[in-house]
Amino acid sequence: MKAVIFDLDGVITDTAEYHFLAWRRLAEQLNIPFDRDFNESLKGISREESLEKMLNHGGAAEKYTKAEKQNLMLQKNRHYQKLIQNLTPANLLPGISRLLCELKSEKIKLALASSSRNAPAILERLGVIDDFQAIVDPAVLVKGKPDPEIFLTAAALLSVSPAECAAIEDAEAGIAAIKSAGMFAVGVGHERSMHAADLMVKDTRELTFDLLNEGWHAAGVEAEIDRGK
Ligand code: B16
Ligand code: MG
Question: Which annotated residues bind substrate (predicted)?
């Protein structure tokens, strides 16, 4: 394991909650039903796709022009940016600060693969931006998660091969992206949405270098058994 690639929302910090609040506010305005269960399906996917899903869910897919949709996304993002304004290092999820320190002292390279265009500002506020050697700019990607492009781009920016990377995600679309990138997938959250991960934890406080390293080696042994070695 030469590199660890992190998702942001739901892994490094709980901005997933702020996305939920901002989308719910927009949904209420548009009279679209919106609950935490539905919100799960928006995790990890882009702003544009999230809006489309939400409008479909409310039977309003054809109701808005392109320009109106741009405006709806702007409204959501403005509210979201207000909510994230007060983030501080205290908003790192439990165990993440320790994990970043452990990975740095093991000389593991770190990259960020977040679909959020607000990611650099968030890392800055959390005080960890300098820990990352690479941050993928989601604006340059052709396809979002579950496509592997974002994780493959992160590996390329770090000059490591995908097989040398582990990546941590809290969204089903993210785990699918990691697996199709040919990387070791670490899932944080409920078994229901994380079943495809190679290693699963319920909570970020369980994430340590030792756990990742052991999981990595165990998966390597299984892969060798699968190949009949
Ligand atoms: P923004 P991640 C994702 O971040 C969020 O999970 C998803 O809910 C959001 O729609 C997406 O970023 C885009 O975010 O509107 O800030 O550009 O989980 O990939 O770190
Ligand atoms: Mg996430």
Answer: 7-9, 23, 42-47, 50, 76, 114-118, 145
Span 24-42, pLDDT tens digits = 999 999 999 999 999 988 9
The finding on whether 193 has its CB within 6 A of some atom of ligand 1 is no
**Ligand with minimal distance to 150 CA:** 1
- Answer yes or no: is the C-beta of 13 below 6 A from any ligand 1 atom: no
CA pair distance 172, 146, nearest whole angstrom: 8
- Give the ligand at the shortest distance from the Cα of 11: 2
Do residues 214 and 113 share a domain?
yes
Question: Is the whole model's pTM more than 0.85, yes or no?
Answer: yes
Same domain, 37 and 10: no
At 209-227, the pLDDT tens digits run: 999 999 999 988 666 656 6
One domain for residues 59 and 98:
no
Residue 107, by phi and psi: left (phi above 0), alpha (psi -120 to 50) or beta?
A: left
